[in-house]
Every structure is written in structure tokens, then in C-alpha cells.
Please model this.
Amino acid sequence: MQNCIADRAADGYRAYYKRNPVDREYRSWAISLAILNNSFHYAGLKDNHIIVEYELPYSSRRIDVLLFGYDIDGEENIIMLELKQWSNQHVQDAEAEGNVLVDYGQFKKEQPHPALQVQGYYFGLRDFLEIFQEKNPPELSGSVYLHNYSKNKDALLFASKFSQITKTFPLFAKEDAIELGKYLKKRLQGGKGQMIYERFARSPIEPSKRLLDHTSEMINKRQIFNLIDEQIAAYNAIMHKAKQLAKIKQKSVVIISGGPGTGKSVIALEIMGELLRQGKKVVHATGSSAFTNTLRSIVGVRARNLFKFFNSFITIEPDSFDVLICDEAHRIRESSMSRYTPRAQRTDLPQIDELLRVAKLNIFFIDEHQIVRPSEVGGIAMLKEAAKRFGINDENIVGFELKTQFRCSGSDAYLQWLDHVLEIRDTEITEFDAKMEFRIFDNPSDMMSEIRKRNEEKPNLARIAAGFCWPWSKPNLDGSLANDVKIGSFEMPWERKDQFWKWATDNSGMEQVGTVYTAQGMEFDYIAVIFGNDLVYDFEKNTWKAVPGNSYDSQIKRNNPILVNHLKNVYRVLMSRAHKGVYVYFMDKSTEKYFRSHLPEIK
Model:
């Protein structure tokens, strides 16, 4: 009533994120929340509790409104509300089932139907908050208020094809302020919302569903992970393309881009599992030996042949598969040829052409800032150019960008800060986000002690990794490993050279130092990183500098004019593997000083 709810929200936003909300967000609070208040008045709500912009566990996505209260029968209720300012003329139908196309003025974007968006948030709360696992949990429900959208006969969002999802997660149009009031009154009129909120706020957050813990079940049995927002839109678009395979002859390409922790591999494996259950011929490929061998070991003997490397398709006949899923597509190389390739199989064909050739639908998951070797050429422009060589027109090249962060404590701000400090790209956010635990250690022994403590809590919760600044020895004749990584009195072995792919998942990996090549594609709750002296910050020139003499990675440093860029990407990968905490020891103290200058006061 005092017209200050947007100011209150902005104050809370600044206190939490240490930055100002953008104008668009402030305006949405000022308009949507004021309109929502009409339904509160109709429902007679007076003793309830409201959260504005609640951040989902392990995610950077936020629920617009959460409401707490008892119903008339004394049952506890928590209601999620998604507030949309969309109008009828701005929402169009999309080809992909479950998606709509939204016109934002300067651009159009394919989005999941808002009821599907709320469903994602619903399971995001149910899956991770302990309060919903208790014997008598509060009733959780969700709905959408489209306060600028009219429920006329042509209203797409109310079409019958969405009726199944809207029965569970109903929509309220701009004419429905009273209906929304009745919906709220039925669930919240008993008040006492503060009591339920306090239980909710104290509820422990369950550990994240780690991808590799569930891969076998995803592939062999059922969907495991709940997708949200742009993940849903991408998934729906891919499934739509897969449905069309029998009807059209032309190849299709889907490119999903996103930074570390945005769920690229989750979507890839969920899609693979569903398409296999539908009887499609599907194969998964990466350029990472560690990631592929880990997946093979998890899914078992029957499914292991479905996981291949990018260089596995030299002799495969065209269109042998319905769908090829290329995860970590930034690791695509110029050629599949090596000195081990038999003469009869040698070809001048680029590796990307070999990949596009073997399937009718090609899906690429890519992060261009994870290219760590000169031989890796995977990029969005390169993929589009190669697709056109195969006659694939723009209509059959679909792109999605994933921005929602599920790693790094759900902090996209942390990753933006990391990219800013490493000078990888210009970012909107340049200040450190304290949601992520980030500790700098004075010596690596203390850092490793913390990693051991974490692994005592639960095996394989944490790992230590390093820049490639020491030689990597073969195992000794008795099977033991040499302590190659040496810093003063600190000594540890690299990952086992003949079984390096086990580093991320086997207990033995907890006492071995990993490299970027085994860490890439993996995730942990905590990662410790030895930031080597192959990449240092030069205060005299105010820029990053590569020191090739301190690197033992011959493949990256040989005749490489952009070595500094590849090394930046190496440390970006290593420092973005964790859900909860990043521990760092800097070999170069100038580099440590530079990092500290971008941090608030820390331990």
C-alpha cells in the first residue's frame, strides 16, 4: 500500500548480491508485486510470510514469490508463484512440444511453457530441502500469474495441449485476480506463516545429485535429474528434432552452449537415455579420455559401446546413427589422424565432418572458454560453418545458451568474477560472490589436510588438482607412484598414468593430484588447486604472462602463440569444478597478491 515493495526488494538484493539490480528487474517488482497485492487483499491474508526472489538450492535461478501459511484445517502450506509480464501478442507457438516463443522486443527466445518452469522449481525444492522429506511435510504447490495476459479463446498458454501440466500447476490470467485470491485463501487463510517459514529457513539442504552417481540409471532406466528453465527449452527442442527424423531427409544440428556447471552433460545424458528408451540409435562422444572411460565404467558392459571418442568415426558409414551427442564439443580437433592411424584409414577429412557425417541429428554441447590445447578447434562458428558444408540450412541449425548455474554454490557471479580476474572475457559482475567458499592457503600441505577432512565426511567428496608444472612419471615396477609434484616438504604423485581416468571416482584418486585433462567434465563438492608458475600476473605490464619454461605440457606449449589464453582456460576449468568450495595455493606470490586484490578480506 505504501508503494515501496520494489525498494525493499532492491535493498535485500544489494545486501545479498553486493550489487544493484538491473532496471528491468526493479520494474518487474514494482509492477507485478503491486498487482499481486490485489489478490492478497481479496484473500484476506494478514498473518502470512512472503519471500521475494528465493534462490533455488544449488542453482542461480530464483522463484519469484514463496508464500507460507496454514489452511483452515490447520495443514501447513507453501505456495510458489511465478509472475509473468508477458502479453498475448508477445507469445507465439514454438515447434518443440512444451515450448513457446517469447518476443522481448529486441530479441525472441524459445522458453518452456511457464507451468513447466514452475514444475522445475517445484522439484528443485522437493529434491533438495529436507523439510519435504520429513514424515509430515508442508503441502507444496505452484502456479503462474500472467497479469498482462488475457484468457481469450486464442490464448496459446491456455491451449489444450498444455492442459495436463496446467492441471497440476495452474495459470491465472489478468482477469483472474479474484480466482487467484480464492486459490490463495484456500491454502493460506489460517495464517501463522512465520512459523512455517522458520522451519523452511532452518531446513538443511541435501547434497546435490552428482551426475556420475546417477549416470547408469539415467541411461538404463529412467530420467533422474529435474531440468529447469532454459534446460527444459533445449531438451524439448532436441526431442522435437528427434521426432522428425523419420519424416525428413535433411540433417539437423542443435548447439547448446554454456559455462561450467550449467548442466550440459546432464542434458546430454538425459536425452541419450530417453532416446534409447524410444528405440533410437544413439551414440555419445567426447574428446576426453577420462570422461568417456569413466562413463563406460559406470554404465556397465552392455552400454559401454555407446560411449565413444571424437576420433572413433573415421570408418563409420554415413547416417549410421539417428543421433550423435557430442559432449565437450570444444575439444573437437582439426583431424582424427595420429601416428597410430593405419595407412588405409588415413583421410584429409576434418574431424567435425566425420562427426556430422555419421548421424541425422547432431547435438553439440560446448563451452568455448574450455579449450585448453592448440589442437582443439571446437567453436560455435566452426560448427555452423561445417554444417553448411553438409547443406544444413539455418532453419535446421538450432542454438540454445545455458546460463543457470548449478555448480559453484549456484553462483554464476563466482564464474563471472573468475573470468574477470583471469581476463578471459568482459563480465557484468566483477566482485567476488561470498556464496562460494574460496580460500587461499599459505602452503599446499595445509590445503591437502582440508581435502582429507572433506573426504572423511564422505569418500570422493573432494580432490586436489594442479597446473602441469612437474614431469609425470610412469608407475614404478612395484606399482607404486613417484611423488612428482613437489613444493618444499609437500610431495604427492600425479594421477596414475595407466589408469588416469579413475582419478575422479576411485578412492585412490583422493591421494593423487589431477590434471586439467582428467578434471574437465568432472565435478566435486570441493576442489583444491595448485596454481602453477606457468601462468603468472605481471604487475609491471598489468597483464597475464605465460612462462613456458615452467610447463611440462609439451602439447600445449610447443609453437603456441596464444599459450597464455590456453593456460587461463586451464585454471578456469580447474577452479570451476566444485559445488561448494575452492581452495587455492599459488606458487607465484605476485599472482596470489593479484587474486587477493580482487577478494574481500578472507582467511
